[in-house]
């Protein structure tokens, strides 16, 4: 993991968060749902394959899976099986460590925040149900099937769209992206934004290239590094 020392970060005013694997602890659930689809075909969902799929839209990921694993079904059939498995497993998803504290802290300090997730809106709504009280911290949530969205991650579109929907809209360089996937990190960098990457521990270091900062956990994020308000306990510690 790279450290924050000796790196020069630019001040930001807005934050844009990925959801799966960044805010919500859903990536293991995706692995289980996909493995459930693959088991009848005798296939294994390896991390090598998963790391290429994370952050892609369900339609693109489905087409990839059928092609790469040579499955005897159409991408549409795969997508339907995947959605059925997934929707049964995401009724009680948890937040990742440090997420709630950071979101409430930034919200309290009026930092404009948005979410940009590749997930389709109907799937997101199932995950969102147990978190209805927290989600209004986001000014808006852009999903992967948004009618204004042209291309999924690693294209920069979803982050540029999320930035454009703030009123007033900030420049991309004033936005800080939080991501867990290599595809999402590439999308944020292509959008001209700084990217805090909090990857799966199995992601090879080479795949983190381009990230502004790589962390093990959201709980390790220090907002003041990017000109955002520090946590109160850090202020007390620093200034007595
Ligand atoms: O193991 C996987 N994880 C995640 C995805 C895809 O990544 C999306 C989540 O992306 P993001 O974290 O950018 O919201 C999921 O909706 C799904 O389309 C996948 O295909 N396989
Ligand atoms: Mg993600």
UniProtKB/TrEMBL annotation:
NCBIfam families: HAD-SF-IA-v3. Transmembrane segments: none annotated. The keyword Metal-binding applies. Belongs to the HAD-like hydrolase superfamily. CbbY/CbbZ/Gph/YieH family. The lineage of its organism: Eukaryota, Metazoa, Ecdysozoa, Arthropoda, Hexapoda. Pfam families: HAD_2. Gene3D superfamilies: HAD superfamily/HAD-like (3.40.50.1000), Putative phosphatase, domain 2 (1.10.150.240). It comes from the Eukaryota. Keywords: Hydrolase, Magnesium, Metal-binding. GO terms for molecular function: metal ion binding; pseudouridine 5'-phosphatase activity. Its EC number is 3.1.3.96. Signal peptide: none annotated. This is pseudouridine 5'-phosphatase. It comes from Drosophila hydei. It catalyses: psi-UMP + H2O = pseudouridine + phosphate. Its cofactor is Mg(2+).
């Amino acid at each position: 993991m790279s450290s924050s020392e000796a790196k020069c970060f630019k001040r930001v005013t807005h934050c844009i968060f990925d959801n799966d694997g960044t805010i919500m602890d859903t990536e293991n659930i995706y692995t289980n749902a996909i493995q459930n689809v693959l088991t009848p075909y005798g296939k294994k969902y390896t991390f090598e394959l998963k790391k290429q799929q994370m952050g892609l839209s369900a339609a693109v990921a489905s087409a990839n899976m059928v092609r790469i694993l040579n499955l005897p079904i159409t991408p549409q059939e795969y997508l339907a099986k995947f959605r059925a498995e997934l929707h049964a497993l995401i009724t009680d998803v948890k937040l990742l460590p440090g997420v709630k504290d950071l979101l409430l802290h930034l919200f309290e300090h009026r930092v404009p925040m948005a979410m940009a997730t590749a997930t389709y809106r109907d799937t997101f709504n199932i995950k969102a149900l147990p978190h209805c009280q927290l989600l209004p911290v986001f000014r808006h949530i852009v999903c992967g099937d948004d009618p204004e969205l042209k291309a999924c991650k690693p294209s920069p579109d979803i982050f540029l769209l999320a930035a454009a929907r703030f009123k007033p809209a900030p420049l991309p360089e004033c936005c800080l992206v939080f991501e867990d996937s290599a595809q999402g990190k590439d999308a944020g960098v292509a959008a001209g934004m700084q990217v805090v990457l909090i990857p799966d521990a199995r992601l090879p270091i080479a795949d983190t290239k381009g990230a502004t900062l790589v962390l093990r956990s959201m709980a390790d994020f220090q907002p003041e590094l990017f000109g955002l308000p520090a946590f109160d306990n850090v202020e007390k510690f620093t200034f007595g």
